[in-house]
Amino acid sequence: MTRQAYTLVLFTVLRAVSPEQNHYIYREMEHMVRTLILSGLSLLVVVAIIASPGGAFQASLQGLSVWWNIVFPGLLPFLTLLELMLAFGAVHGIGQLLHPLMRRAFKLPGEAGVAVAIGWSGGYPAGAEAAGALRKRNAVSRSEGQRLLALAHMPNPLFVLLVVGAGFLHRPGLGAAILISIWTAGLFVGLAHGLFVPERNESDREEAEIGVLRRAARAMKEARRLDGRTFGKALGDAVTASVAKLMAVGGFMILGSVAVQLATPLFMGMLPPALLPAVIESHIGAYATSTAPYSGMTWNAAAVAAALSFGGITALLQAGGALGTVDLSIWRLALNRLIQAVLAFGITLIIADPASRLLAPLLTSAQPVLQQGDRLPSAIGYRISQLPALWGYAPIMVAAFAAAIGLLALLSYGLPRKN
């Protein structure tokens, strides 16, 4: 029920109450109605699981398998690395290096470049976690954090290249084209937001007098002094916090898989078969859209790009869990993801065929990592044993993250200073 519906229902009651009490009564009744709706939905889910325990179990197992083989190894290095970078001041130092680029292109502080690199290299919700960490220590304002959240909340690139491209579509070049489309759509939205935001009123005098490298070293030293933890303590805290966050992510993914399994029979014949999985859970949605009977592989690739760019409800919930009590809106993130999904769909339709042909010689070693298996009673059509693991690619992802930071720093350092 929308806010407008709440207003219509409560209009008569609120007219009879003094204006000073309207807001309080409205909020209380809204909270009560929302609680009743969520309680009813939870009860329906429990009844559906009891009515179909076998399907719910298989869906839970599929969600757990995707989380353990893909999401956990894909995110653990980056979440742990982020905690260590914050503890030892590396985020502050890199932020000084990236400050000119992020400020002039996206109207964001330099530390935002670290969140973008983490989100684009590790996948969601690593970008949301990084954006939330910066907002929590007031490195970004609320509006800046909102724009940074939309820019950094991206799918895991290895999942797109290996699982979607070489696995689901059996064409690694298409996976690369999908990834380029998603990143291009994100950059376009980020740059468009920056056009309508006034630039920070800051001077480059300090940069000219001290130099960017010295400023980065000074910021890193000061942040390290304020933290004060030893390496062993910081590492232990980083691993503990990262694993706890990933456990929550796994819970969201399992619930999303079960929701797809239970909701599919209810909407059968009413919605396109691939739409519901794509809206609820991005990994399941990527498989559903890649195997849907469209008029050509290019349309499948475009649908996959849209599904992964949106991320699904579970990815939005993961972002909300990663943000915690930070005052950033998930609804605004969802709107940005919808816009990026539409852009990614259109961009993929344009570049899929030429990009696939151009990149195919470079990806000849990427053989299909999934073979279509017997269908389980689930929304995912491959066997659990055939699901590839990203554990061996963790060093590659960390190296890609370091390369992204280095490239951004070079671009930032090469920008001409403002007069």
TrEMBL record:
Superkingdom, taxonomy of origin: Bacteria
Keywords of the record: Membrane, Transmembrane, Transmembrane helix
A Pfam family recorded for this sequence: Gate
All residue ranges annotated as the Nucleoside transporter/FeoB GTPase Gate domain in the record: 71-142
Identification of the protein by name: Sporulation integral membrane protein YlbJ
Species of origin: Paenibacillus methanolicus
Residue ranges of the TM segments: 35-54, 66-88, 148-168, 174-196, 246-268, 301-323, 335-352, 390-415
